[in-house]
């Protein structure tokens, strides 16, 4: 009885045609290839408009020639794939039809060993819309089923015997149901909006509290105008930083997909599309610079440098031994500098030095955590980094030393003449020193045990001890400032 049913399915079912971008894979091959090419040769982006003038098919062909993707790491729609495998076992003919370059499409699905034919753009013909439908009819006949995901697939759904809607929004699904015979729907794995918000890494905004530090140490946080200016600066920095994080994730798609934790990020996993991410990054940076323009030209200049340095870090500097951690420490310190710039508070060499060495230590702890996790592999060098497994000892030593230097700078500051002008009882500030040492050394102990998240900021935000230490430091500063203790 089972064999008879299978035989009827094989003999009756027409070819099943499947779209690639956003359907079989939860990303876009052209966008992935373009980003990879830009990361490999950033200057080549100026040629894109000239290639586009010769047609989209020509643009795709040129990008394909220069980009080298890790096709095995591209995120696949697992539920759809399982269904396709079951259809293939019944003997059904499967055809991949995509507007992406055919060479890329073939490389993408080669590992699946699933499709009988692959149709795609070839450098002269852009296989989209009517041209795609003509190619499908030529290869499969007029009776076929079609699986797609977007409004561009509407024409193909209407021409198909059965329409399969994959990863589509409610409006696209409703339009397909009105004009086509929709027999199966594969819902999106989650909300694109929520995934886009997660890609902003809003928890990283805790770093922007450094902007308040100059006003805090100068006892000017009680001034309403200063507080309002600093709050707007935090917002501007946060928006620009979030935009920069999205850009970083876009350039690191392949590397993140190979990482045990980062592969779950919205962009790496395909939960957030590249188009939405690019629009979101541009919007955040534009809003951040717009707010900065209202505050002053000094902040605009500083944020511009910050964004450029962050992009350089994402493209190149993060691959360089030691340069990467020094860059991160500079990016942290720029937040303190911003606090000085927007308030006009005199720069403090003590404060800037303490912050620089403290965050240099945290940057080293981030690398140490990665090396501890890397030690379980058989590779010599960390992919995409300038570090080898044998570097863990020197990285740990340099990181702990940086943390101790920041504590030493704090000790020298407490003993300086500047402190006597700001605090009634400066001797009480010595109590902050062991608290800082506890925070730093605890992070390194956790890192040594292999339990530190790849990002120490996440540990800082999640750890209950952080808030205890911060509360005690606040009490110490208040006690040193007032005359009631």
Q: Distance between the terminal alpha carbons, to the nearest Å?
A: 90 Å
Count of distinct strands = 6
> What is the domain total for the residues?
3
Nearest-angstrom radius of gyration? 28 Å
Give me the secondary-structure category.
mainly alpha
Under CATH, the topology of the largest domain can be stated as: Rossmann fold
Task: Specify the CATH architecture of the largest domain.
Answer: 3-Layer(aba) Sandwich
Please state the average pLDDT score: 86
Strand order of the largest sheet: 3-2-1-4-5-6
Helix residue percentage: 55-70%
Q: What is the CATH C-level name of the largest domain?
A: Alpha Beta
Report the CATH superfamily of the largest domain: HAD superfamily/HAD-like
| Low-confidence blocks of residues | 1-11
Largest sheet: 6 strands, parallel
User: How much beta, percentage-wise?
Assistant: 5-15%
């Amino acid at each position: 009885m089972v064999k008879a049913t299978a035989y009827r399915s094989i003999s009756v079912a027409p070819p099943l045609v499947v779209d690639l971008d956003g359907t079989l894979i939860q990303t876009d091959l052209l966008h992935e290839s373009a980003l990879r090419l830009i990361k490999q040769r950033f200057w080549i982006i100026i040629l894109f408009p000239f290639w586009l003038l010769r047609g989209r098919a020509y643009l795709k062909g040129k990008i394909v020639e220069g980009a080298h993707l890790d096709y095995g790491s591209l995120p696949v729609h697992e539920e759809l794939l399982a269904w396709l495998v079951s259809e293939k076992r019944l003997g059904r003919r499967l055809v991949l039809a995509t507007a992406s370059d055919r060479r890329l499409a073939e490389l993408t699905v080669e590992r699946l060993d699933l499709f009988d034919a692959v149709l795609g753009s070839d450098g002269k013909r852009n296989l989209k819309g009517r041209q795609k439908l003509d190619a499908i009819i030529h290869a499969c006949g007029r009776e076929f089923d079609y699986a797609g995901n977007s409004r561009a697939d509407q024409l193909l759904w209407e021409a198909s015997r059965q329409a399969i809607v994959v990863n589509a929004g409610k409006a696209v699904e409703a339009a397909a149901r009105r004009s086509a015979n929709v027999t199966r729907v594969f819902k999106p794995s989650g909300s694109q909006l929520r995934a886009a918000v997660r890609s902003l890494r809003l928890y990283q905004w805790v770093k922007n509290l450094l902007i308040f530090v100059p006003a805090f140490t100068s006892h000017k946080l009680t001034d309403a105008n200063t507080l309002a200016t600093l709050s707007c600066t935090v917002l501007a920095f946060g928006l620009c930083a979030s935009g920069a994080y999205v850009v970083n994730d876009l350039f690191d798609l392949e590397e993140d997909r190979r990482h045990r934790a980062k592969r779950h990020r919205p962009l790496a996993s395909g939960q957030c599309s590249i188009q939405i991410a690019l629009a979101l990054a541009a919007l955040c940076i534009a809003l951040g610079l717009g707010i900065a323009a209202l505050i002053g030209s000094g902040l605009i200049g500083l944020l511009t440098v910050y964004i450029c340095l962050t992009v350089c870090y994402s493209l190149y500097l993060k691959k360089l031994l030691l340069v990467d951690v020094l860059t991160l420490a500079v990016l942290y310190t720029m937040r303190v500098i911003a606090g000085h710039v927007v308030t006009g508070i005199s720069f403090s060499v003590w404060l800037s030095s303490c912050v620089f060495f403290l965050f240099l230590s945290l940057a080293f702890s981030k690398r140490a955590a990665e090396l501890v996790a890397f030690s379980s592999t058989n590779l010599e060098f960390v992919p995409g980094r300038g570090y080898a497994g044998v570097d863990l000892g020197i990285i740990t030593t340099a990181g702990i030393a940086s943390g101790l230097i920041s504590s030493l700078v704090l000790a020298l500051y407490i003993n300086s003449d500047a402190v006597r002008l700001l605090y009634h009882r400066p001797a009480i500030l010595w109590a902050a020193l062991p608290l800082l040492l506890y925070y730093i050394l605890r992070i390194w102990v956790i890192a040594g045990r292999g339990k530190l998240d790849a990002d120490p900021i996440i540990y800082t935000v999640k750890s209950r001890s952080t808030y205890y230490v911060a509360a005690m430091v606040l009490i110490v500063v208040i006690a040193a400032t007032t005359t009631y203790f």
